[in-house]
Amino acid sequence: MKRFIIAPIALTFVASSALAGPPPNKAERAKDKAAIKEDHREVRNDRWDAARLDSLAARYLAASASPIRGKIVALDTEFLAELNLELRESHIEVAEKNAEVKQSKAEVEKEKRQVGRNILKGQPVRAVKNSVELADDKRDLKDDRGDLGVEIAHRNEKQILHKRFVSLRGKIMPAPIAEKLGIINEALALARSEVVGDVKERREDRRELREDRRKSP
Questions:
Q1: DSSP codes, 53-95
Q2: What does the CA dihedral 180, 181, 182, 183 come to, rounded to 10 degrees?
Q3: 24 phi and psi angles, rounded to 5 deg
Q4: Which pTM was predicted?
Q5: How far from chain centre, in Å, is Cα 137?
Q6: Are 50 and 191 in contact (CB under 8 A)?
Q7: Alpha carbon 90 to chain centroid, angstroms
Q8: d(Cα 6, Cα 62) in Å, to the nearest integer?
Q9: Cα–Cα distance, 112 to 116 (Å, whole number)
Q10: What is the pLDDT of residues 78-95, one digit of tens each?
């Protein structure tokens, strides 16, 4: 008789586990891998952006030696198109970072509640484990808030560069050309700093994946 009683219970447990979805740590690892994949895409795209601006800066410098109005206007238009594209991407990235901050805050609050429940249930071992995970979630939240701050600063700087350049568009006298070249070089420096930030973020996401792999599944 016991064999027939235990079997349904075991089947019920297996079925319940399957319906519950992947273990939390497995889900974390999947999220880390997705983040690393996105990091690769951002590094590649931002390197392309920096390369295009580098080329534009070189061509603008060459054109400034003996400025021809039609050529300068064409380069002005090209740079503004590039900057408009960068601004659109920045708005998207700010929205994405905002979403990541909200998700991290939700994870922190969830882990806090889990710690409290385990303490009330008299389960100190589980409470300690959740406290460690809570510390990790708080660190992730801090990192996400920092990333959001950087993206907002970059977006604001691009808006300022755009406004300055628009006021000089089409001008071919030495002073405004020199100022426009300076703006292009500022945009190039910003693009390069974004590549550095992307590489740093990819390194952090890889570290998080290694940490999640070390945890029990």
A1: HHHHHHHHHHHHTS--HHHHHHHHHHHHHHHHHHHHHHHHHHH
A2: 50
A3: -50, -40
A4: 0.73
A5: 17
A6: yes
A7: 11
A8: 83
A9: 6
A10: 999 999 999 999 999 999
Q: Where are the domains of the chain?
A: 25-214
Tokens of 48: 């392309």
Token duo for residue 35: 């983040």
Q: How far is CA 47 from CA 44, 50, 57, 172, 198, in A?
A: 5, 5, 15, 30, 10
For residues 75 and 56, is the Cβ–Cβ distance under 8 A? yes
Q: How many CB atoms lie within 10 A of CB 89?
A: 18
pLDDT of 13 above 60: no
* Eight-state DSSP code of residue 42: H
Region 96-111: what's the mean pLDDT? 91
Contact between residue 158 and residue 190 where contact means Cβ atoms under 8 Å apart: yes
The 8-class DSSP code of residue 1 comes to -
Q: What pLDDT, on the 0 to 100 scale, is given for residue 148? A: 93
Among residues 153, 152, 150, 178, the alpha carbon closest in space to that of 164 is found at 178
Percent of the chain with pLDDT over 90: 47
How far apart CA 172 and CA 72 sit, in angstroms, is 7
pLDDT tens for residues 127-184?
A: 788 888 888 889 888 989 999 999 999 999 999 999 999 999 999 999 999 999 999 9
Distance CA 110, CA 214 (A): 22
Work out the burial of residue 8: count CB atoms within 10 Å of its CB; fewer than 13 is exposed, 13-18 middle, 19 or more buried: exposed
* Amino acid symbol at 150: V
